[in-house]
Amino acid sequence: MKILFQIVLLISRLPLKVHYLFADFLFFMNYYIIGYRKKVVFTNLKNSFPEKSNIELQTISKSFFRNFSDYIVETVKSFTISSNELKVRVQHLNQDVFHQAKKEGKNVILLTGHVFNWEWYNALATVLPQKNTYAVYRKVNNSFWNDQIKKIRGNYGNTAIEANEVLKHIFRNPNNGDSAYMFVADASPHINMVDYGVRFLNQNTPAFIGYDKLATRMDFHFVYCDMKKVKRGFYQVNYYRIKPDGEKFKEFEVVDKFHALLEETIRKRPDNYLWSHRKWKYQHAIKNFKK
Questions:
Q1: Where are the alpha helices (DSSP H) in the chain?
Q2: Which letter, b or e, does each residue of 237-262 get, where b requires 16 or more Cβ atoms within 10 Å of its Cβ?
Q3: How confident is the model at residue 146, as a pLDDT?
Q4: What is the DSSP letter of 271?
């Protein structure tokens, strides 16, 4: 395993233009020969966009697999890419929301979806006014690769926190404007943890709701991350404050608003979303829905 990782590190140090040659090869092999989850991708797209023709859906599917191949090599590059290069490749817009949170003495909860390339958010820590930044990750069973994921999420001054520990950490940490937490918030909950569902992309969708406890119990600044792939290897992220309708968030209000914003992002650029996951496989387990 360690030898394999050393090979990955050697590949990671190659220039990105070489990585994209690998990506082109991966796309060709996967899309035309192997067909990894092509049926899953097409089914997810068809259910999400019933108004689109099969030709339109096939075009989106093909573009998705190109972007997915780029995501794979960019993730490999994440092991060694410098913060200076990421500052050039990822433009962070509307940073005023973070300075306002700092001014008000409120910690920040960043919510993003599986929009390419979410792994490159990490360098945001180098430009935030918040002193402490925490990247939340989900533990994987293989301890070696779990450690490598922690290293990627812990780059550029971030501290990586496992998802099961993050709420405990947040409640113990002072809410003083010095901390920001980065959540990939559209992850599918395990079947035993499916409690709440939203209507998302024309489907009943199980929703991860851990961050909802923060919205209803503590006065944080919630920020949505709207990521856009400008061209190969270059991205823009616009940040928007998510505010409650009243003085405080009601139960599940921030969950509903996050999914509405994410759907808007996906509809603008559907080929940049991670369609290969079986996001809707636990629909039957949803106990209650958005009213």
A1: 2-12, 16-28, 38-48, 54-77, 83-89, 96-104, 143-153, 163-172, 212-217, 253-268
A2: bebeebeeeeeebeebbbbbbbbebb
A3: 66
A4: G
Query: Three-state DSSP class for 156?
Result: helix
* pLDDT band per the 50, 70, 90 thresholds, residue 22: very high
| Per-residue model confidence as pLDDT tens digits over 250-282 | 999 999 999 999 999 999 999 999 999 989 998
Number of domains in the chain: 2
Q: Is residue 112 part of a domain?
A: yes
Listed residues 11, 42, 77: the one ending a domain = 77
Is there a domain that residue 219 lies in? yes
- Can you give the C-alpha Rg of the chain in angstroms? 19
Residue 100 within any structural domain of the chain: yes
Please tell me whether residues 105 and 247 are part of one structural domain: yes
Structural domain span for residue 100: 91-289
Reduce the DSSP state of residue 117 to 3 states and report it. Answer: coil
Over residues 207-233, the mean pLDDT reads 94
Q: Domain for residue 84, yes or no? A: no
On whether both 52 and 163 belong to a single domain, the answer is no
Q: What's the mean pLDDT when you consider all of the chain?
A: 91
- The answer on pLDDT for 149 being more than 80 is no
Do 193 and 287 contact (CB within 8 A), yes or no? no
Does the model's pTM come out above 0.90? Answer: yes
